[in-house]
Design brief:
Layout: E1 5-8, H1 10-24, E2 33-38, H2 41-54, E3 60-67, E4 80-83, E5 93-101, H3 105-116, E6 121-129, E7 142-146, E8 152-153, E9 169-171
Helix pairs in contact: 1-2
Length: 173
């Protein structure tokens, strides 16, 4: 296997997160809840939370643990909820945060969970959006990077649980 190709450096990743925070902060309510999709969304959510804080925006934080890939390279086509929301979102604005949008199944499931819990408004921010051959039901409101159709790792994206911690975005194909 050859070495992964760096597509975005750590510095480029951070510049895109800062640009997203500039877009998101003006529309985020004081009692908004940021919902991180575990596990991959942790890296992006942490950086975005700090970037928003630098802009005077400090949303409440929660997480949903959803799974559709497991350790496979392709989605199973169904989403399993491993852990639900811990914080009430009823009547609140929710910002769902994930590192990458492939099929959009997890984001769609997260939106439905938040809406069912009574969220007043649900918006979605993803660091990377990959092209997909069919229309997706979930559409992100904020996208940091239009990614190529490659097998990506780093910045939360993984290969069977490995490479998530790489600071940039790498292609493994």
């Amino acid at each position: 296997m050859r070495a992964p190709e760096v597509l975005l450096s750590a510095e480029a990743v951070q510049a895109r997160v800062e640009a997203l925070a500039d877009q998101i902060a003006p529309g985020l309510d004081d009692d908004a809840v940021m919902v991180c999709l575990l596990t991959g969304g942790l890296w992006f959510a942490a950086d975005l939370t700090r970037a928003l804080s630098r802009r005077g925006c400090n949303p409440l934080f929660d997480a949903l643990w959803l799974a559709s890939y497991g350790d496979a390279a392709e989605t199973s086509g169904r989403v399993v909820e491993r852990a639900g929301l811990q914080r009430p979102v009823e009547g609140r604005q929710v910002l769902i945060v994930d590192e990458v949008m492939d099929s959009g199944l997890s984001l769609l499931a997260a939106r439905r969970i938040c809406e069912k819990a009574g969220a007043r408004e649900v918006r979605i921010a993803v660091f990377a959006r990959k092209p997909w051959p069919a229309p997706r039901e979930a559409t992100p409101d904020f996208v940091g990077w239009e990614a190529p159709a490659r097998f990506l790792v780093g910045y939360g994206m993984d290969a069977a649980g490995r490479w998530r911690g790489a600071p940039g975005v790498l292609a493994m194909d």
